[in-house]
Design a protein that fits this description.
By secondary structure, this protein is α/β, with parallel strands linked by helices. It has 8 helices and 8 strands, in the order βαβαβαβαβαβαβαβα. Helices cover about 40% and strands about 15% of the residues. The chain has an 8-stranded parallel barrel, surrounded by 6 helices. Strand 7, helix 7 and strand 8 form a beta-alpha-beta unit. Helix 2 runs parallel beside helix 3 and helix 6 packs across helix 7. The chain is globular and about 45 Å long.
């Protein structure tokens, strides 16, 4: 079972690797759902991390619909992320109908090159998740989809996560379950859905708060719960 943890600073990056996480999602603006971190933070994280660093590429929190100016910013950010040596990027683009914005996605994937790509929880705002999954499965660069199975926390959407994991089974995609998971709930979600990757934010931190440091005890409890 692969455990991904959100990091917002270099102390987080060091702690996540030392305490047993397998991969980092590096973000800033966590109160807004995660935004693109600074270049200085990206460079430092890539330099010190012993585990892969996936960098959020999200220029604003207004929506997941981006115009040409936004996409130009995102392409430049992706180029900087590649230059910094990070393992991959985390992106998500939708059109006004709630479908994956294919032209925008292809623009960003062209900029990504050989970076590892996660499609983030914009997926949970799609009008039809199974249709969106089939769209994303056409792009080998996209390795996984971060999803709670919808708008509700993942422990309340186990059946939908199972349906997504089954739909992804015949593709190269993996379902990365996240949002609302904790050491107490993750085993039920994993067993009920069959996912092989899980994602943690505040639940990996002291007092369950993003204002607190990443906790060795909480990550160890998560690892114990998932085996």
């Amino acid at each position: 079972m692969l455990v991904e943890v959100i990091a917002t600073n270099i102390a987080d990056v060091r702690a996540a690797g030392a305490y047993g996480a397998d991969r980092i999602e590096l973000v800033t603006g966590i109160a807004e759902g995660g935004l693109t971190p600074s270049l200085g933070l990206i460079e430092a994280a890539a330099a010190v991390s012993a585990i892969p660093v996936q960098v959020m590429v999200r220029p604003h929190s207004q929506s997941f619909c981006y115009d040409n100016a936004d996409l130009a910013v995102m392409r430049r950010d992706i180029a900087a992320i590649r230059q910094a040596g990070a393992a991959g990027i985390v992106i998500g683009v939708l059109d006004e109908r709630g479908a994956v914005d294919v032209p925008a996605l292809e623009t960003l994937l062209a900029a990504a090159g050989d970076l590892d790509v996660t499609f983030h929880r914009a997926f949970d705002e799609t009008a039809d998740q199974l249709v969106a999954l089939r769209t994303l499965a056409a792009y080998p660069q996209i390795r996984r989809i971060l999803t709670a199975g919808g708008q509700r926390p993942a422990p309340q959407a186990v059946q939908q996560l199972a349906a997504l994991a089954e739909a992804a089974a015949d593709t190269h995609l993996r379902i990365l379950a996240g949002y609302g998971l904790s050491a107490e709930t993750v085993a039920v979600v994993v067993q009920g859905s069959g996912v092989h990757e899980v994602h943690f934010g505040s639940a990996a931190r002291e007092d369950g708060s993003f204002a607190r440091p990443i906790s060795r005890e909480r990550i160890e409890a998560i690892r114990s719960a998932v085996g």
